[in-house]
Amino acid sequence: MSDTVERHEFGAEVGRLLDLVVHALYSDREIFLRELVANAADAVDRRRFEALTQPIPALPADAAVRILPDKPGRTLTIADPGIGMGKEELARNLGTIARSGTRAFSQALAESKASDRPSLIGQFGVGFYSAFIVAERVEVVSRRAGSEEAWRWESEGQGAFTLAPATREAPGTDIVLHMRADAEEFLEPFRLHAIIRKWADHITVPITIAEDGKDTPANEGTALWRKPKPEISAEDYTAFYRHLGHYFDEPWSTLHWRAEGTTEFTALLFIPGMKPFEAFEGERRSRLRLHVRRMFITDEAELLPPWLRFVQGVVDSEDLPLNVSREMLQATPVLARIRRAVTGRVLSELKSRAKDAEGYATFWQNFGPMLKEGIWEDSEQRKEIAPLLRFRSSAVEGWTSLPDYVARMPEGQSAIYILVGDNIEALSRSTQLEGFRARGVEVLLLADQMDAFWPERLGEFEGKPVRSITQGNIDLSGLGTAPPEGKAPADVTRLLPLLKAALEAEISEVRATDRLVDSAAVLAAPAHGPDLALQRLLRRAGRPVGGENPVLEVNPRHPLVRRLAALADSGADLEEAAGTLLDLARVQDGDVPREPAEFARRMAAALASSL
Ligand SMILES: Nc1ncnc2c1ncn2[C@@H]1O[C@H](COP(=O)(O)OP(=O)(O)OP(=O)(O)O)[C@@H](O)[C@H]1O
């Protein structure tokens, strides 16, 4: 080795990842070609785009991704005239894992079915490393467009790579795979053609395969979305969907239309049939691809709001100039019009698919939390999104919606009641529901992370305010069917101030409630400030909760409260009993007592004297 060769260790996670990729994907080896060709085509697109504003040489008119098999030398080269990589970029892009850690990846791999594994590769951004599935050594020779220098990155995929100066006549990248003995099939041109047709046919950059000394075209490159609909089969759509997102399933919905009039564009969009990792863990913005008259421009134009970032696809504009630059994209009103039209179309698709309850449930389970983000942040669409939400309920099985809830509301009920917590099971057994259940008043149960936030933003639906049953003072009298009168309520006029005095530091108010049937006491949030669920979330995150202390509501018909009321009347000290009552209310909501050991001691003592 010459003096100029630098040796670098891979990031620790890369080493482990390489191992995983090679083993987990062995039976789907051919996807290495899809990954490398996709990277090469991206690099070509990037050079074309950057050349518009940066002082770098323009893309040659005949730019293509070339695949060059060499049987005698047992190498396969993928060459592109794209943007290229400088020394630092080679080390960073090919020496570390860009987007997500090995831990998340290996966990997902371990939990996935074998058939889902290849899709994980794309989703976790380890595409390049799939080269090592078929190669025992990989050389990358690259020259960044705009630079005179070229560099050679080389690795056997075991712990380290080297970097050395090299030469390359023009900007671009050659990936040279020194194939393993058992991977020689990938040096056969007919095999390579079949793989490209299957995986990369839709790439609009020309792809060629060298055969008998000449390059033969390998991809059709027809922008699928530009074909007349009758000429496109369901398989074509699915193949394109899989290509776009590295998916392996079927799209839940395919939207393909041409908009004419003031804004002209063609769009081909997909709503995935599964929940992609990226959409939730990755960055919060839409990666819809913007093309101008077939030519790829960018996937950073944010053609959909962040809460619709799960939608994949292409928008091909007729109105923008081919040499549209980043600055121009920010300024042009064309994009705003496209955005509005595309968002509206996706929403109306959801609206019509929502009529099929079962089919919509699949969508809802995958992407429901994102629609809730929409309620939170998109004031323009909030009203449109609200009827698309689905809920569990205290009164009906399965999913229900706000319009259905409103239709079921009995006369006299003026608000939509919700209860927010951590899990549906616990919520459906919650003490907070007792009085509502007894009166046959339905409550929607919400257990997504987002649920602590968005209801407040929605505020109301069809003129009915959305009210958390753990917040403020809800008067149930006159609502639904009155429950059978049990024992007469105790007179708590003396008890309430005593409890209040004993719990001064933790409770802002103590009041009697008719919300309870079998339980003695329950906590509620004050009418203003964060609701109980949000308070819990803030506490867990170690953030200040703010606002007033919670309210303690007591059930004057409950034996414990009756007894306390009698003691209060006789002037007994209720300090300790008040604390226990508060702890009981906390435990019911899934919180811990203020002093768990002290609480346990008191309970044990109470049990001992009563058994
Ligand atoms: N042929 C190439 N030309 C220029 N840059 C490349 C090329 N191949 C890879 N890269 C760079 O290396 C990075 C890492 O590539 P890799 O395939 O591992 O992940 P990715 O392309 O970011 O993710 P995914 O495979 O999911 O699309 C790319 O983002 C790109 O910046």
UniProtKB/TrEMBL annotation:
Keywords of this entry: ATP-binding, Chaperone, Cytoplasm, Nucleotide-binding, Stress response
InterPro entries associated with the record: HATPase_C_sf, Heat_shock_protein_90_CS, HSP90_C, Hsp90_fam, Hsp90_N, Ribosomal_Su5_D2-typ_SF
Pfam name, any one: HSP90
Binding site for ATP: 35, 39, 80, 85, 93, 100-101, 123-128, 173, 326
GO CC, one annotated term: cytoplasm
Region of interest: C: 537-611
Task performed by this protein: Molecular chaperone. Has ATPase activity.
Protein name: Chaperone protein HtpG
